[in-house]
Amino acid sequence: MQRKRVQAGSPPSREAARPTPPHVSVxxxxxxxxxxxxxxxxxxxxxxxxxxxxxxxxxxxxxxxxxxxxxDAAGAGVSRAGDESVRWSFESSPQAVERSPRIVTxxxxxxxxSSGWTRAGLLRTAVGAGAVxxxxxxxxxxxxxxxxxxxxxxxAEILNFFLLLEYVQExxxxxxxxxxxxxxxxxxxxxxxxxxxxxxxxxxEDWLGDRARDKPALSFxxxxxxxxxxxxxxxxxxxxxxxxxxxxGANLSHRTITKxxxxxxxxxxxxxWVRNIAGMSPAPRAADPAREADAVVADLxxxxxxx
Amino acid sequence: MTxxxxxxxxxxxxxxxxxxxxxxxxxxxxxxxxALGSAAMLAGLATPSDAEAxxxxxxxxxxxLRFERLQATFYTxxxxxxxxxxxxxxxxxxxxxxxAHERAHVRIFKSVLGSKAEPRPFFDFGKDxxxxxxxxxxxxxxxxxxxxxxxxxxxxxKDRGLTAALFGLLTVEARHAxxxxxxxxxxxxARAFDEPRTLRSVQGAVARTRFIxxxxxxxxxxRPRFTG
Lengths: 307, 228
Fold this sequence. Notes:
The complex is a heterodimer. By secondary structure, chain A is mainly alpha-helical.
């Protein structure tokens, strides 16, 4: 029964799974306040990370993380005035939609072709509960049914992706500490978070055991060399990791989700912290976007952090 | 009553600790007192109690709605009675953003639940959103509690679509919590792993705040107990 509700009436077909905006009634007051557009400090201090954000801050649009749920999340940051009458939607910012990484609409076969992270339901969590659960997609395509071994294998694949993200972050903060070009709040942040990333790495390595991936070769070049680049890169890495976690977290087995959930929330805290240091809104959206694993990795490669 | 509320919400006392020193201590002082947490307690969650294992997705959604409504109302009222307007600009932005997000979350839960959504309960925050200090510490405690709730219920959710959605809300609530802690001078991310709490335990904590009332207070138009 609940499952039906979550789908918000969408049949699990590809077309229907597209996050069509809910009807948005615009009447009465038209004052729309978007938290993410309100510069908290002088604009000159703002850092715009064109590649990180699922949707550029100023557009303050949301990205669907689920069908019924995610669509409504587009109401992110609606003002009090907007409560009754106005909110922006996907339609209001087509550019944002186009740019928005999402995990919503691809079919399994498409994923098989395009993704290195090929667990069947891996990237289609948000297609709708019914599609994933009723279709038995989560485990099914592996042919392993829901056996413990198949589940662990699937978990391992996802956790190896997470481990890569943690390796990159840990390496970045370590190199930043070594170069010692920062001070003040930013230094406090880096010192605190550095230790946390190491704990995350340890947890994932322990969980994975023999299956743990190799450490990637990392290269941050100038990113660790000045307060500005450290700040910018830290925000980029934190947001990229978060989007990756959100995209894959729901595909983990229940047993593993428990621990990973508490890691993800810690990552989100780190993201908010460094954004605040940088003068950006720590929480720019009412619901955070998900991102495909291969897109996250491709982006890290493009930036040259990993090979 | 106010103290009881905070103590109830703040299980590990790290927050109370930080707040107690809020106006007299340096930020560095906080950083020293707040130790990094460990993941040791996570081990204990592998086997849920029977009661917890029986928590349904509907239970989670209903309580999610209730809790988001509580928070949304808390911020909305603080706005209406002028508490937020009296704050410094940066803090206003924090309070307004959190309020807007919590109201959006209410809509999310309502739309998911559809006709199953419970009617809106009645809230009474007493003095807890009347002064800036009370508002702030209650907000900090509530945001941390929300993170604990969401991390706690994630492994209980059966529906994967719902799980995916909750991940996207969890990170936002964690951002709120970090922002709130930053505002009061506590370490925004004090631990490598947050501490989850079970649905039942958070329900208990919320009940002890007495913010949710069974009935509205009606001072007039009361029906006589006996008629005829």
